[in-house]
Amino acid sequence: MPELPEVETLRRELTKAVKAKTVKDFWTDWPKNVKPSASTVKTKIKGKIILDIRRRAKILIIKLSGGNFLLIHLKLTGQLIYQPKKLPATSYKLIAGGHPQKGGLDNLPNKFTHYIFSFSDGAKLFFNDLRKFGWVKLVSKLQADKLVSDFGIEPFTRDFTLKKFTEILQRYPNRKIKQILLDQTLISGLGNIYCDESCFAAKILPTRIARMLKEQEIKRLFLVIPKILKLAIDKKGTSADTYVQLDGSQGGMIPYLKVYGRQKQKCKRCRGLIHKIKLNGRGTHFCNSCQH
DNA sequence: GTGTTTGTTATCAA
DNA sequence: CTTGATAACAAACA
Protein backbone atom coordinates (compact mmCIF):
# COMPACT_ATOMS: atom_id res chain seq x y z
CA MET A 1 0.00 0.00 0.00
CA PRO A 2 1.24 3.48 -0.72
CA GLU A 3 2.97 4.96 2.31
CA LEU A 4 5.51 7.77 2.48
CA PRO A 5 8.22 6.10 0.33
CA GLU A 6 5.76 5.05 -2.35
CA VAL A 7 4.07 8.45 -2.54
CA GLU A 8 7.44 10.20 -2.48
CA THR A 9 8.69 7.97 -5.31
CA LEU A 10 5.64 8.88 -7.35
CA ARG A 11 6.07 12.56 -6.50
CA ARG A 12 9.62 12.57 -7.84
CA GLU A 13 8.72 10.68 -10.99
CA LEU A 14 5.61 12.77 -11.51
CA THR A 15 7.62 15.98 -11.22
CA LYS A 16 9.91 14.80 -14.00
CA ALA A 17 6.98 13.69 -16.11
CA VAL A 18 4.37 16.43 -15.90
CA LYS A 19 5.86 19.58 -14.40
CA ALA A 20 5.18 22.57 -16.71
CA LYS A 21 2.67 20.56 -18.73
CA THR A 22 -0.80 21.94 -19.43
CA VAL A 23 -3.86 19.99 -18.29
CA LYS A 24 -6.18 19.31 -21.16
CA ASP A 25 -8.96 17.25 -19.61
CA PHE A 26 -10.14 15.18 -16.69
CA TRP A 27 -12.27 12.04 -16.88
CA THR A 28 -13.82 9.90 -14.17
CA ASP A 29 -16.32 7.10 -13.82
CA TRP A 30 -16.32 7.37 -10.02
CA PRO A 31 -17.29 10.99 -9.23
CA LYS A 32 -18.17 10.03 -5.66
CA ASN A 33 -14.55 10.50 -4.60
CA VAL A 34 -13.94 13.73 -6.50
CA LYS A 35 -14.41 16.95 -4.53
CA PRO A 36 -15.97 19.46 -4.81
CA SER A 37 -17.41 17.66 -7.86
CA ALA A 38 -16.20 15.99 -11.02
CA SER A 39 -17.57 18.77 -13.23
CA THR A 40 -16.00 21.51 -11.11
CA VAL A 41 -12.63 19.79 -11.15
CA LYS A 42 -12.87 19.27 -14.88
CA THR A 43 -13.77 22.89 -15.56
CA LYS A 44 -11.27 24.39 -13.16
CA ILE A 45 -8.15 22.42 -14.08
CA LYS A 46 -8.56 22.63 -17.85
CA GLY A 47 -5.83 24.81 -19.33
CA LYS A 48 -3.95 25.08 -16.05
CA ILE A 49 -0.21 24.47 -15.87
CA ILE A 50 1.40 22.10 -13.36
CA LEU A 51 3.72 24.37 -11.42
CA ASP A 52 4.96 22.09 -8.69
CA ILE A 53 4.27 18.79 -6.96
CA ARG A 54 4.75 18.35 -3.24
CA ARG A 55 3.87 15.68 -0.72
CA ARG A 56 2.42 15.87 2.77
CA ALA A 57 2.09 12.58 4.62
CA LYS A 58 0.65 10.27 1.95
CA ILE A 59 -1.01 13.02 -0.07
CA LEU A 60 0.24 14.45 -3.35
CA ILE A 61 -0.25 18.21 -3.65
CA ILE A 62 -0.18 19.47 -7.21
CA LYS A 63 0.15 23.22 -7.54
CA LEU A 64 -1.68 24.59 -10.56
CA SER A 65 -1.47 27.93 -12.26
CA GLY A 66 -4.37 30.11 -11.17
CA GLY A 67 -3.78 29.44 -7.48
CA ASN A 68 -5.59 26.16 -6.85
CA PHE A 69 -4.18 22.85 -5.71
CA LEU A 70 -5.06 19.37 -6.83
CA LEU A 71 -4.78 16.77 -4.07
CA ILE A 72 -4.49 13.04 -4.67
CA HIS A 73 -4.68 10.29 -2.08
CA LEU A 74 -4.10 6.70 -3.22
CA LYS A 75 -5.38 5.16 0.01
CA LEU A 76 -4.98 1.36 -0.07
CA THR A 77 -4.87 0.32 -3.68
CA GLY A 78 -4.38 3.42 -5.81
CA GLN A 79 -1.96 3.47 -8.73
CA LEU A 80 -0.72 6.41 -10.77
CA ILE A 81 0.57 5.39 -14.16
CA TYR A 82 1.89 7.82 -16.70
CA GLN A 83 1.69 7.31 -20.42
CA PRO A 84 3.97 9.73 -22.24
CA LYS A 85 2.34 9.90 -25.62
CA LYS A 86 -0.67 8.77 -27.54
CA LEU A 87 -0.96 5.13 -28.49
CA PRO A 88 -3.13 3.89 -31.36
CA ALA A 89 -6.83 4.33 -30.62
CA THR A 90 -7.39 0.59 -30.29
CA SER A 91 -5.20 0.56 -27.17
CA TYR A 92 -7.74 2.66 -25.33
CA LYS A 93 -10.46 0.07 -25.36
CA LEU A 94 -11.67 -0.73 -21.90
CA ILE A 95 -10.07 -4.04 -21.11
CA ALA A 96 -11.74 -6.09 -18.42
CA GLY A 97 -10.06 -8.59 -16.18
CA GLY A 98 -6.49 -7.32 -16.08
CA HIS A 99 -5.11 -7.59 -12.57
CA PRO A 100 -4.04 -4.15 -11.41
CA GLN A 101 -0.72 -5.46 -10.12
CA LYS A 102 0.28 -6.25 -13.66
CA GLY A 103 0.04 -2.55 -14.45
CA GLY A 104 1.73 -1.86 -17.70
CA LEU A 105 1.25 0.87 -20.23
CA ASP A 106 -0.19 -1.15 -23.06
CA ASN A 107 -3.54 -2.01 -21.56
CA LEU A 108 -4.71 1.30 -20.14
CA PRO A 109 -7.25 2.30 -19.21
CA ASN A 110 -8.38 -0.96 -17.60
CA LYS A 111 -11.39 -1.82 -15.47
CA PHE A 112 -9.69 -0.29 -12.41
CA THR A 113 -9.00 3.07 -14.05
CA HIS A 114 -11.34 5.58 -12.39
CA TYR A 115 -9.65 8.88 -13.19
CA ILE A 116 -7.68 10.06 -16.21
CA PHE A 117 -5.80 13.34 -16.49
CA SER A 118 -4.79 14.20 -20.02
CA PHE A 119 -2.28 16.81 -21.07
CA SER A 120 -2.07 19.10 -24.07
CA ASP A 121 0.89 17.17 -25.53
CA GLY A 122 -1.10 13.93 -25.59
CA ALA A 123 0.35 12.45 -22.41
CA LYS A 124 -2.05 10.81 -19.95
CA LEU A 125 -1.99 10.09 -16.25
CA PHE A 126 -4.10 7.11 -15.18
CA PHE A 127 -5.34 6.76 -11.61
CA ASN A 128 -6.30 3.13 -11.10
CA ASP A 129 -7.90 1.98 -7.88
CA LEU A 130 -9.12 -1.54 -7.24
CA ARG A 131 -10.91 -0.66 -4.01
CA LYS A 132 -12.06 2.84 -4.98
CA PHE A 133 -11.01 4.39 -1.67
CA GLY A 134 -8.62 6.84 -3.29
CA TRP A 135 -9.70 10.40 -4.01
CA VAL A 136 -9.07 13.59 -5.95
CA LYS A 137 -9.73 17.03 -4.49
CA LEU A 138 -9.36 20.50 -5.88
CA VAL A 139 -8.75 23.05 -3.13
CA SER A 140 -7.77 26.67 -2.63
CA LYS A 141 -4.42 27.75 -1.24
CA LEU A 142 -6.06 28.30 2.13
CA GLN A 143 -7.43 24.77 2.22
CA ALA A 144 -4.12 23.35 1.03
CA ASP A 145 -2.28 25.17 3.81
CA LYS A 146 -4.73 23.87 6.38
CA LEU A 147 -4.23 20.33 5.17
CA VAL A 148 -0.49 20.74 5.48
CA SER A 149 -0.78 21.94 9.07
CA ASP A 150 -3.23 19.21 10.08
CA PHE A 151 -0.67 16.45 9.81
CA GLY A 152 2.07 15.39 12.20
CA ILE A 153 5.82 15.68 11.85
CA GLU A 154 7.38 14.73 8.54
CA PRO A 155 10.27 12.34 9.24
CA PHE A 156 12.57 14.09 6.76
CA THR A 157 12.19 17.63 8.07
CA ARG A 158 14.08 19.52 10.76
CA ASP A 159 10.96 19.21 12.90
CA PHE A 160 11.65 15.54 13.41
CA THR A 161 13.84 15.72 16.49
CA LEU A 162 14.42 13.24 19.31
CA LYS A 163 12.92 15.77 21.72
CA LYS A 164 9.66 16.09 19.77
CA PHE A 165 9.49 12.37 19.15
CA THR A 166 9.87 11.71 22.87
CA GLU A 167 7.21 14.30 23.67
CA ILE A 168 4.77 12.56 21.37
CA LEU A 169 5.27 9.27 23.20
CA GLN A 170 4.80 11.05 26.52
CA ARG A 171 1.63 12.69 25.32
CA TYR A 172 0.02 9.28 24.75
CA PRO A 173 1.69 7.16 27.42
CA ASN A 174 -0.87 4.38 27.32
CA ARG A 175 -0.93 3.75 23.62
CA LYS A 176 0.89 0.89 22.02
CA ILE A 177 3.90 2.12 20.12
CA LYS A 178 2.66 0.96 16.74
CA GLN A 179 -0.54 2.89 17.22
CA ILE A 180 1.42 6.08 17.77
CA LEU A 181 3.60 5.47 14.73
CA LEU A 182 0.52 4.89 12.58
CA ASP A 183 -1.23 8.07 13.70
CA GLN A 184 -0.87 10.55 10.84
CA THR A 185 -1.67 13.51 13.09
CA LEU A 186 1.43 12.74 15.18
CA ILE A 187 4.02 11.45 12.72
CA SER A 188 3.10 11.45 9.07
CA GLY A 189 3.89 8.95 6.38
CA LEU A 190 4.21 5.62 8.17
CA GLY A 191 1.70 2.91 7.30
CA ASN A 192 1.46 -0.73 8.17
CA ILE A 193 4.60 -1.86 6.36
CA TYR A 194 7.05 0.72 7.63
CA CYS A 195 5.67 0.69 11.17
CA ASP A 196 6.42 -3.00 11.46
CA GLU A 197 9.79 -2.59 9.77
CA SER A 198 10.75 0.32 12.03
CA CYS A 199 9.87 -1.61 15.17
CA PHE A 200 11.91 -4.57 13.98
CA ALA A 201 14.92 -2.41 13.17
CA ALA A 202 14.71 -0.83 16.63
CA LYS A 203 14.28 -4.29 18.22
CA ILE A 204 11.05 -3.17 19.85
CA LEU A 205 7.80 -5.13 19.86
CA PRO A 206 5.00 -3.13 18.20
CA THR A 207 2.76 -4.07 21.13
CA ARG A 208 4.88 -2.19 23.68
CA ILE A 209 3.16 0.56 25.67
CA ALA A 210 4.72 3.95 24.97
CA ARG A 211 5.37 4.81 28.60
CA MET A 212 7.35 1.62 29.10
CA LEU A 213 9.94 2.42 26.46
CA LYS A 214 13.39 3.24 27.78
CA GLU A 215 15.28 6.31 26.59
CA GLN A 216 17.61 4.18 24.53
CA GLU A 217 14.71 2.40 22.86
CA ILE A 218 13.01 5.65 21.93
CA LYS A 219 16.27 6.86 20.46
CA ARG A 220 16.72 3.67 18.45
CA LEU A 221 13.24 4.02 17.02
CA PHE A 222 13.79 7.68 16.26
CA LEU A 223 17.01 6.95 14.37
CA VAL A 224 15.68 4.01 12.46
CA ILE A 225 12.53 5.58 11.01
CA PRO A 226 14.18 7.96 8.52
CA LYS A 227 16.76 5.31 7.72
CA ILE A 228 14.15 2.77 6.66
CA LEU A 229 12.06 5.30 4.77
CA LYS A 230 15.17 6.45 2.92
CA LEU A 231 16.08 2.91 1.92
CA ALA A 232 12.53 2.32 0.72
CA ILE A 233 12.64 5.49 -1.39
CA ASP A 234 16.00 4.39 -2.83
CA LYS A 235 14.37 1.08 -3.80
CA LYS A 236 11.35 2.93 -5.24
CA GLY A 237 8.86 1.53 -2.78
CA THR A 238 7.27 -1.78 -1.80
CA SER A 239 5.04 -3.55 -4.32
CA ALA A 240 3.45 -5.90 -1.80
CA ASP A 241 -0.06 -5.27 -3.00
CA THR A 242 -1.09 -3.16 -5.99
CA TYR A 243 1.48 -0.37 -5.75
CA VAL A 244 3.56 0.28 -8.86
CA GLN A 245 5.86 3.09 -9.94
CA LEU A 246 4.76 5.80 -12.34
CA ASP A 247 5.83 3.73 -15.35
CA GLY A 248 3.83 0.73 -14.13
CA SER A 249 6.83 -1.26 -12.92
CA GLN A 250 7.19 -2.75 -9.45
CA GLY A 251 9.11 -1.13 -6.62
CA GLY A 252 12.24 -2.95 -5.42
CA MET A 253 11.88 -2.87 -1.63
CA ILE A 254 10.45 -6.33 -0.96
CA PRO A 255 13.82 -8.13 -0.66
CA TYR A 256 14.79 -5.62 2.02
CA LEU A 257 11.72 -6.12 4.20
CA LYS A 258 12.55 -7.97 7.40
CA VAL A 259 9.14 -8.72 8.88
CA TYR A 260 6.24 -7.44 6.79
CA GLY A 261 4.69 -10.34 4.90
CA ARG A 262 7.30 -12.77 6.31
CA GLN A 263 5.09 -14.54 8.86
CA LYS A 264 6.09 -18.17 9.50
CA GLN A 265 9.50 -17.50 7.97
CA LYS A 266 12.84 -17.29 9.75
CA CYS A 267 14.02 -13.96 11.11
CA LYS A 268 16.84 -12.60 8.98
CA ARG A 269 18.61 -11.33 12.10
CA CYS A 270 18.31 -14.13 14.66
CA ARG A 271 16.76 -17.08 12.79
CA GLY A 272 13.75 -16.94 15.12
CA LEU A 273 10.23 -17.23 13.78
CA ILE A 274 8.36 -14.21 12.43
CA HIS A 275 4.87 -13.96 13.90
CA LYS A 276 1.79 -12.21 12.63
CA ILE A 277 -0.91 -10.98 14.97
CA LYS A 278 -3.78 -8.50 14.94
CA LEU A 279 -3.07 -5.24 16.70
CA ASN A 280 -5.88 -2.70 16.79
CA GLY A 281 -7.35 -4.51 13.83
CA ARG A 282 -4.15 -4.39 11.79
CA GLY A 283 -1.96 -7.21 10.63
CA THR A 284 1.25 -6.83 12.65
CA HIS A 285 4.52 -8.64 12.02
CA PHE A 286 7.43 -9.14 14.40
CA CYS A 287 10.11 -11.50 15.62
CA ASN A 288 9.52 -12.35 19.25
CA SER A 289 13.05 -13.65 19.65
CA CYS A 290 14.95 -10.47 18.91
CA GLN A 291 12.30 -7.78 19.43
CA HIS A 292 11.54 -6.98 23.07
C1' DG B 1 -20.63 -17.80 1.85
C1' DT B 2 -16.57 -16.39 5.02
C1' DG B 3 -12.52 -14.27 6.35
C1' DT B 4 -8.68 -11.39 4.98
C1' DT B 5 -6.37 -7.30 3.17
C1' DT B 6 -5.77 -1.70 5.14
C1' DG B 7 -5.92 4.31 5.09
C1' DT B 8 -8.93 7.17 7.01
C1' DT B 9 -12.91 8.96 9.29
C1' DA B 10 -16.88 8.57 12.15
C1' DT B 11 -19.23 7.00 16.08
C1' DC B 12 -19.97 5.02 20.42
C1' DA B 13 -18.45 3.33 24.97
C1' DA B 14 -15.95 3.47 29.28
C1' DC C 1 -9.26 14.23 27.08
C1' DT C 2 -7.70 9.31 26.42
C1' DT C 3 -8.28 4.74 24.64
C1' DG C 4 -10.35 1.08 22.33
C1' DA C 5 -13.65 -1.15 19.60
C1' DT C 6 -16.45 -1.24 15.57
C1' DA C 7 -18.29 0.09 11.22
C1' DA C 8 -18.06 2.20 6.86
C1' DC C 9 -16.02 2.74 2.35
C1' DA C 10 -15.10 -1.33 -1.91
C1' DA C 11 -13.45 -5.33 -4.17
C1' DA C 12 -10.61 -9.28 -5.03
C1' DC C 13 -8.79 -13.47 -3.45
C1' DA C 14 -8.12 -17.93 -0.96
Q: Could you walk me through the main structural features you see in this protein, from its secondary elements to its overall organization?
A:
There is one protein chain. The chain is an alpha+beta fold. It folds into two domains: 4-150, N-terminal domain of MutM-like DNA repair proteins; 162-287, Helicase, Ruva Protein, domain 3, CATH 1.10.8. Helix content is 27%, strand content 21%. It is built from seven helices and eleven strands. The strands form three sheets. A five-stranded mixed β-sheet has the order 2-9-5-4-3, sandwiched between helices. A four-stranded antiparallel β-sheet has the order 1-7-8-6. Helix 1 (4-18) packs parallel to helix 7 (215-234) and helix 6 crosses helix 7. The chain is globular. It starts with a helix and ends in a 5-residue tail after the last strand. 40% of the residues are buried. The structure holds a DNA duplex (14 and 14 nucleotides).
